[in-house]
Amino acid sequence: MTTSSIDSAVAELRAFLTGDMDTWRRLHGTQDSDAKGAFAILLTTACSKAVENRFGKQPSAEDIIDFVSDARVRTIGPDTVPAEDAEKVLRATPGHEDLLTSMNARDRAGAQTAMLYALTHETDESQNQVDDLLAHAVEVTAAYLRQRAAR
Q1: Cα(146)–Cα(96) distance, rounded to whole angstroms?
Q2: Contact status, residue 37 vs residue 44, Cβ threshold 8 Å
């Protein structure tokens, strides 16, 4: 994967999280396999960091359930993602990644995207939070890809 794949993934995720759906649809519709891979890694990294920022390293099941319930009512809508999928991606902290093995890639990405949107729109500081999350996710994604390429 190239730097341009990461840049494309960042632009796509930023568009989604800031509500620029026209740009998001255009970028999402033109992804090649490298861009899809970079997007998946970036999304997972950003979602993990947002979960840690919001809940800490070991979120309680009750906190996750309450958040998902509230997000499905106030932010993302009840039909966007099944509650069980949303809860799994939020609980899949380090050491609990096994929760995701029962999900296919499409369902996992949909749940991560919905929950990341909800996490970044929980307060009025969403733009700052999006910028900070994406900066962190770019660093982690680039480091991961460098390490993988060196193998």
Answers
A1: 25
A2: no
- pLDDT score, position 146: 86
Per the CB < 8 A criterion, the answer to whether 42 and 138 are in contact is: yes
Give the total number of structural domains in the chain: 1
- Provide the pLDDT confidence category of residue 97 given band limits of 50, 70 and 90: confident
Q: How far, in Å, CA of 90 to CA of 150, rounded?
A: 30
List helix spans (H) across 3-151.
Answer: 3-17, 21-29, 33-55, 61-74, 83-91, 105-120, 126-150
pTM of the model: 0.89
Q: How far is it, in rounded angstroms, from Cα 132 to Cα 150?
A: 28
Contact predicate 64/90, CB 8 Å = yes
User: Cβ(59)–Cβ(115) under 8 Å?
Assistant: no
Q: At what angle do helices 105-120 and 126-150 cross, to 10 degrees?
A: 140
> In whole angstroms, what is the distance from residue 24 CA to residue 116 CA?
15
Provide the residue range defining the domain that includes 108: 3-150
Helix/strand/coil for 17: helix
